[in-house]
């Protein structure tokens, strides 16, 4: 369903992504790992057309999305929602309006200017917030929420687009371990329950191993590993990160392993 062929991005003399190629046969959860500057963000930005590729193809369900223009490109961007490290919400706007922003691509300018949303969209936004356990915060300003809650609002906004693919660029890099786990659980659920493809850039190995069906390792713009979490041994990881024999996986660990405390947080949030 997705074929990436020799995808390349150059910024002047710097090759950020260098002839990346891989194929995905069915929706799955894919983690992309690699050190800072490896080209992970540039890859995601090319995929949803925030950045133009220099060369190569990216074929999704039979169409090279790199060739799409105008309304077709906007439709693809709606099919391919993106979540960012810094949430990118409108801080002073309430949560439900932030979620409704996920419908912007298919709404008219006037309706957008005056915040006119169809009733069914408002109900759907609240249903999505409920599903993510944050409906109790619907009327609050986004800036009043914790980082983890804000990221879940960003996920709700993405789901509002009913996307086929969710791209997440370091979705947990700004979160504490507990909130990181809540956000990763939600990303996994929207793959498991909805069948959406999720591609997440992750800065921690243990998260990639724990949540992803497949892991792609990038180093200096190239794909140097593509396999299952089980194949991602410490030796392979050392290679991806270009580290020496003293490489410690703990340095890339979020230690998000406390299910009891997570359940307590979820229950407390629902009760608020
Ligand atoms: N807009 C840009 N202009 C020039 N160079 C850029 C631009 N965006 C990225 N680069 C360069 O491309 C390379 C890959 O950057 P990219 O942000 O994709 O890496 P990354 O793996 O996502 O790293 P990080 O985890 O730090 O975000 C880097 O050398 C970076 O400096």
TrEMBL record:
The domain of life is: Bacteria
The keyword Nucleus belongs to this UniProt entry's keyword annotation: no
Domain spans labelled ABC transporter: 2-245
Keyword Transcription set for record: no
One Pfam family from the record: ABC_tran
GO MF terms here are: ABC-type phosphonate transporter activity; ATP binding; ATP hydrolysis activity
Cross-referenced InterPro entries: AAA+_ATPase, ABC_transporter-like_ATP-bd, ABC_transporter-like_CS, ABC_transpr_PhnC, MetN_ABC_transporter-like, P-loop_NTPase
Q: What cellular-component terms does GO give this entry?
A: membrane
Name-wise, this protein is: Phosphonate ABC transporter ATP-binding protein
Give the organism's phylogenetic lineage: Bacteria, Pseudomonadati, Pseudomonadota, Alphaproteobacteria, Rhodobacterales
- What keywords would UniProt list here? ATP-binding, Cell inner membrane, Cell membrane, Membrane, Nucleotide-binding, Translocase, Transport
Supply the source organism for this entry.
Alloyangia mangrovi
